[in-house]
């Protein structure tokens, strides 16, 4: 299972969340405590919004803790809205194209979890990706397929309904193909202003997801960044957290 972080609020240096906290995202890449595996060393990625509407991306196949370039960039890049992800592969190749976050126009998305039996129904699942978006797909992960599906399902008009429909399609295909493995998912999607964070599982073992709003800053993360969890709130299972910049607007049932 991967670990990820979404931030929105006052402009900060990326290092303030990637490196400085006691349980920073880079620390979680080595010692995750709420994942199936403790080490997330199959690449990483950071996406941020600066002076343009489209996000910048930096993705690399080496472990996050072992890339001095990430440290240098995080020391210098400031942003009020960014995603970061450390990857533990569930079977697909370790390549830049398979590292999160994924970006299209002003949108970014990232995912943690697994689509059980994906290899058995990959083609019918990908039929829910338009030709335009399929042409932009560079990797082979189920995560990227889910991201591009959302555009055909109405992401730009109604992100919450698009996410709900995506879950319905996956679970329906699993049933059709007699897949018994679970669909487990935490996913974050943003247009550069709003963030939509899903926590879901078709069984009782949804991946962990927390959020905290403090001093004009919103952080949504796979695991709390501090040893003291008092100020961290769990996103309920089968719910979507919706935030507008640093403010959590609502948390709605899937």
From TrEMBL:
Domain of life, source organism: Bacteria
Record-linked Gene3D superfamilies: Glutamine Phosphoribosylpyrophosphate, subunit 1, domain 1
Transmembrane region(s): none
Domain named Glutamine amidotransferase type-2: residues: 2-254
Keyword field contains Transmembrane helix: no
Keyword annotations: Glutamine amidotransferase
InterPro entries attached to this UniProt entry: EgtC-like, Gamma-glu_amide_hydrolase, GATase_2_dom, Ntn_hydrolases_N
Alphabetized CDD domains for the sequence: YafJ
UniProt protein name: Class II glutamine amidotransferase
């Amino acid at each position: 299972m991967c670990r990820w972080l979404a931030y929105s609020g006052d402009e900060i240096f990326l290092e303030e969340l990637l490196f400085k906290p006691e349980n920073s995202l880079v620390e979680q890449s080595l010692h995750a405590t709420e994942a199936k595996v403790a080490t997330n060393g199959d690449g990483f990625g950071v996406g941020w919004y600066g002076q343009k509407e489209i996000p910048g991306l930096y993705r690399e196949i080496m472990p996050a803790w072992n890339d001095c370039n990430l440290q240098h960039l995080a020391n210098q890049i400031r942003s009020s809205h960014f995603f970061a992800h450390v990857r533990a592969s569930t079977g697909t190749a370790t390549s830049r194209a398979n590292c999160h976050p994924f970006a299209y126009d002003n949108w970014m998305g990232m995912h943690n979890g697994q689509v059980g039996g994906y290899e058995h129904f990959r083609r019918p699942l990908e039929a829910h990706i338009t030709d335009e978006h399929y042409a932009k797909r560079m990797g082979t992960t189920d995560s990227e397929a889910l991201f591009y599906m959302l555009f055909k399902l109405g992401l730009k008009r109604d992100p919450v309904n698009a996410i709900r429909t995506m879950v319905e399609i996956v679970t329906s295909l699993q049933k059709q193909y007699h897949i018994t493995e679970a669909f487990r998912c935490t996913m974050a999607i943003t247009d550069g202003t709003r963030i939509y964070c899903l926590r879901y599982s078709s069984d009782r073992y949804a991946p962990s997801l927390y959020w905290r709003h403090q001093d004009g800053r919103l952080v949504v993360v796979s695991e709390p960044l501090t040893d003291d969890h008092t100020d961290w709130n769990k996103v309920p299972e089968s719910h979507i957290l919706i935030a507008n910049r640093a403010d959590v607007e609502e948390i709605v049932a899937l």
